[in-house]
Amino acid sequence: MTTPDNTSDAPAERTGVAAQDWAQAATEPQYRAAVVDLLGALAYGELAAFERLAEDAKLAPTLADKAELAKMASAEFHHYEKLRDRLAEIGEEPTLAMEPFVAALDGFHRQTAPSDWLEGLVKAYVGDSIASDFYREVAERLDSDTRELVLAVLDDTGHAGFAVEKVRAAIDAEPRVGGRLALWARRLMGEALSQSQRVVADRDALSTMLVGGVADGFDLAEVGRMFSRITEAHTKRMAALGLAA
Description:
single chain, 245 residues, mainly alpha, Ferritin, 72% helix, Ferritin-like domain-containing protein, Ferritin_actino
C-alpha cells in the first residue's frame, strides 16, 4: 500500500519579492511606487469606509444597531491610521499617496449610496468584502512587511456576522425583500469589480506589479483567474445572506 501524498496541502514556498522584506524589495523603484499606490488606495478606502459607516448609522432602526455600526466605523479608522503611519514611516506623504484614488472611490460610493438600512448592510458586507478579496490577492505578491500590514487592516471589523444576521432576519420576516436586495448586491458586484479594474489600469506601477513586472509569477491569465476567484467568493457570500447571486 502506498502512503498518501499530502504535499499538495503544504503552503507554497514564497519566491521573488514575496520572499523578501521591505528593505530588500524597496530597492526596486517600480515596486516601491506600486506599494505606495497600494497603501494609498487602501488608506483612502478605510477613511471612506469610516465616513460611510458613521453616516449609515443614522439609518439604524435601533440604538443597539447604531452603536454596532459606530464600533465598526471606529475599527475602520484605526485601520486607516495604521496605513497612514506606515506611509509616513517609509518617507511618503499620506495625503499625496491617497489623492489619486479619491475620485474613483468617491464615485463608487456616490453610485452605490444605499436607500435604506438593509441596503447599507448589504453594501458593507458585499462591497467591502469584494475589495478585501482583491487586496488579499494582491498581498500574496508583496514583501513580507507590507503583506503583514495589508492583511492586518483587512481583518473583519464585525461587518460579516452582523450583516448576515440582520439581513436574513429581515428576509425571514418579509421574503419579498430578498429580491430587491439580490438586485442591489448584483449592482454592487459590478460596480466594485469595475472600480478595482479602473484603479489598477490607471496606475502604471500597480498594474505592472499585478501582471508580472516587479511581482514574480503573476501574468494576465492569472489576473483573470484572480477576478474569477473574487466572483466565486461573492456567490458564496450571497448564499450566506440568503440571496441569489
